[in-house]
Amino acid sequence: MGIAVYTALLLCAATSVRAQEALDKERPLPDYFKACVRGRPDFDRCIMDSLNQCNHFFHTGVPEYNVPPFDPFFAKEVVQKRGGNSLFYKLTLRDVIESGWARSKVIRFKSDPRNYRIRYTQWWPDKFLAGQYEFDGNMIQLPIDNKGQFNLTLYNYTQTTTLTRRPVLDEGGRFLRWAPIKVQINVLNSGDMALHISHLLGGRVIMENILDRIINAAWRPGFFVLRTTINDLVETAFTKIFNDGFKGFDLERVLPPPESISNALS
To answer: Which residues does UniProt assign to the signal peptide (predicted)?
Structure first.
């Protein structure tokens, strides 16, 4: 009898949790941020906690605010160029799919309204990227031309994102419009990495399999080399996400009024 009662209680608890999760997903966006009053000392902490309750929106977007879903995110093309005459390469990534956003967590958040900037650090248990690549380079007068497919998984991955959006003013200092959002990504670390690249040695499968094992066994130096590429890729993704999805986003519809206004109205 005791086991039956205990099992029934567990089922009731599980049903209650699922029902609450379903209700949470139906909450309007401003409801998550109703306690985050600008001007209060706990504002940044409140925003961070609220953002971490909104992960389901990565999959669905927020249609009433014209915010599209972006997990997974699709990038048609990302181009990276580096080097000079004797040491040069151009890496083009095409049809890139990036996923894992809904499993991420914001672990630090800092607003800087005076400079129209926010900076936050985000952690993922895993982040996955896959697509096509084209590599064209010149390494000490040796031309390299290669293309194929790649997939990259980053585990225990952390990055810091800085978003800046400044107002555009006329000659008299009057507001005209908001400039595009500027995005800066700084990859901090990754606990592990799995990278697989096809046609890395021109289709010599046995050698490519050996090199694949070497790359993934000695992944830490590889991650250091890849950081710049990851920064460029994620900056491109974020720039598109924020400028497309949040172009007409009205923060006043989501956040409660600043504390000074609230005090004046009370």
So the answer is: 1-19
Token pair in block for residue 61: 């977007």
pLDDT digits (tens, 9 = 90+) for 106-121: 999 999 999 999 999 9
d(CA 45, CA 36): 9
Cα dihedral 94, 224, 127, 92 in deg (nearest 10): 0
Torsions phi, psi for 214 (to 5 deg): -65, -45
99, two tokens: 């996923």
Domain locations along the chain: 68-248
The CATH label, of 1.20.200.10, 3.15.10.30, 3.40.50.720, 3.40.50.11290, for the domain at 68-248 is 3.15.10.30
> What CA–CA distances, in Å, run from 263 to 201, 240, 257?
67, 38, 10
Query: Nearest Cα to 241, choosing from 39, 33, 44, 68?
Result: 68
pLDDT by residue (tens digit) across 2-41? 444 443 444 444 343 333 344 455 789 999 999 999 989 9
- In sequence order, what E strands does the chain have? 73-83, 87-99, 105-112, 117-139, 142-164, 167-169, 175-178, 182-197
Give per-residue pLDDT as tens, 57-96: 999 998 888 888 888 888 888 887 777 666 777 888 899 8
Cα distances (angstroms) measured from residue 74 to each of 70, 71, 79, 165, 255: 8, 9, 15, 23, 29
